Model the fold of this input.
Amino acid sequence: MIYLDNAATTQVRNEVVDAMIPYFHDKFGNPSSLYELASENKNAINQAREVIAKTIGADSNEIFFTSGGTESDNWALRNAAENYGEKGRHIITSRIEHHAVLHTCEYLSKKGFEITYVNVDEYGMIRLNELRNAIRKDTILISVMFANNEIGSIQPVGEIGRIARQAGVLFHTDAVQAYCHVPIDVKEMNIDFLSASGHKIRGPKGVGFLYVRNKIKLSPMIFGGSQERKMRAGTENVPGIIGLSTAAKLENANLIKRANRESRARDYLIERIMREIPFTRLNGHRYNRLPGNASFSFQYVDGESLLVMLDMEGICASSGSACTSGSLEPSHVLRAVGLSDEVAYGTLRLTISEDTTREEIDKTVDTVKKIVSELRSKSEEYNNMLQKYRRCRMNNGR
Done:
């Protein structure tokens, strides 16, 4: 098997599994109890909070553990609406956000909030002038993702944060794809809320965190006990939190070296695909993109058939977000960057890791070439295009 869908989820590190196992068995105590078995787990959670905070330049009391990116996104947006709604009822986001943000915005719009969706350019980069012009006196929040999960483009988060801070507007960024893949400093970037998830960084599923800058008003996400400083009730997922912090510590310590290696492998993959397969578009920014992300759209190809045939060859890939797999609609991200539905349906996302080898990339490219050629040979539209092209060349030759 060749696994090239790391944007969907990653394989948990052995070191992470080893760190988690004791908390399923020997260290099973409930952190809210008073005896030593429990207090040791409470201390372990606090230590994990400190580890996470250091990876983004935050204070430990600014980190709240959640079930993952979706919950963190929901919490950030709904909290801003609840606690700052008296100041204004206007929120700005982009057209290429994850559905955890977009669907929360839809919910808030039904509650009387006005949402402005800022456009992106053909490379998936937010239009900063449009963002600046969208800010109003009643704007309370800007929510723009750090890096796109489908096409990999990295946004100018530091500049967006500066714009928001100068305007007195809160800034949330969904950093699920970027966390521990690119350097992040929440203080330098003027970030007020940041969402992240464990299973994108070789940690466990079902755990993540929300960074909330000190002095930001915060309401509970879940009511009940006093866990997470009374902001998220419910017995803590101790093994998951330990796994998340262990993965974050390992991935962050090796971030630059790993990113450089993945970028070289990504560039090699992009170069081969673009050189060897005609009528192909690279989605996202060519260079300002996540180290392991490569997204292509092949004209005259059905993307679903391509994925099925790749799977039969033992290659795991996707067309885009795992959260919308099975949808009959083309990706909202690809539409936002200007792709027609026809081209968008032929999209393939390949996301590598530091373990991806040159041999695996070569086999994948060779296999994609073969399948694309086979699918195009059965496409009436493609064959008609070739006939017109050949006739044109013959006429020009005369």
In short: Residues 145 and 173 are 5 Å apart (CA to CA). The chain has a mean pLDDT of 95. The chain is about 45% helix and 15% strand.
